[in-house]
Amino acid sequence: SILLDDNSTFTGEKTALPNANSVRGFDVIDTIKTQVEAACSGVVSCADILAIVARASVVQLGGPTWTVLLGRRDSTTASLSAANNNIPSPASNLSALISSFTAHGLSTKDLVALSGGHTIGQARCTTFRARIYNESNIDTSFATSVKSSCPSAGGDNTLSPLDLATPTTFDNKYYTDLGNRKGLLHSDQQLFSGGSTNSQVTTYSANQNTFFTDFAAAMVKMGNISPLTGTSGQ
After folding, report:
1. How much of the chain is in helix, strand and coil states, percent to nearest 5?
2. Which residues of this UniProt protein bind Ca(2+) 2 (predicted)?
3. Which of the listed residues 25, 106, 194, 217 has the most CB atoms within 10 Å of its CB?
């Protein structure tokens, strides 16, 4: 449903706070869908395309592969409020993150593994400004370097990589960063801040294969959250 634009019957999810100026690449999916429709019309949903592209992207960047279960149908509606309420905020603390994932049948282990997706991608200055200027659980030199591109006022949409060392490689450096107090988002560093998830972060930091295995399993599990199938959806 995130692909749907606003129309007369609903306001879509693209302008929800966690998505606005953040989620990108819709044109890529549109292009793929156009080409797939030309090859075999009415067979492959956009939802399945998103699931396949997620895996392809991870593999292309050096990460693990997994079997993508297919047969999802597309939603015909979207919910701005659902996106605003259900997507965890970068300001979330550990208990809020655990609760958010648990509500969708995902374990704390899944939370830590899926957060490793932040080994790629970028975040806007507005999402981590409070952390780099106000928090103590952060490496001083790291905070200083990020401040150079994220001023205390202005520059809200300036981007910084979530993984400073290898921002375009799918690896376990995200967890190494957390161990060194170099998590960019508050919600990232919460995974290694003296709480129940510290040991799992340490494990992934030391063993990339374990992270890859758990990430792949969690992606399949997440892909099974209430998919539209059969006669539901489009």
Report:
1. 50, 5, 50
2. 119, 163, 166, 171
3. 106
Report if residue 152 sits inside a domain. yes
Q: Is 166 annotated as a binding residue?
A: yes
- pLDDT tens figures, 176-220: 999 999 999 999 999 999 999 999 999 999 999 999 999 999 999
Q: What is the CATH number of the domain that holds 164?
A: 1.10.420.10
Residue-number span of the structural domain to which 101 is assigned: 94-220
Task: Please tell me the pTM assigned to this model.
Answer: 0.95
Task: Report the number of distinct structural domains present in the chain.
Answer: 1
Is residue 163 marked as binding? yes
Is 37 marked as binding a ligand? no
| CB neighbourhood size of 213 (10 A) | 14
DSSP strand pairing (122-124 vs 159-161): antiparallel
DSSP code of 191?
Answer: G
List helix spans (H) across the chain.
26-39, 46-60, 80-86, 94-102, 108-115, 125-134, 140-147, 173-179, 186-189, 198-206, 208-223
Residue 14 has pLDDT above 90, yes or no: yes
Annotated binding-site residue? 5: no
Does residue 209 sit within a domain? yes
Q: Assess if residue 181 is contained within a domain.
A: yes
CA dist 204 and 216 (Å) reads 13
Tell me whether residue 118 is annotated as binding.
yes
Query: At 159, is the secondary structure helix, strand, or coil?
Result: strand
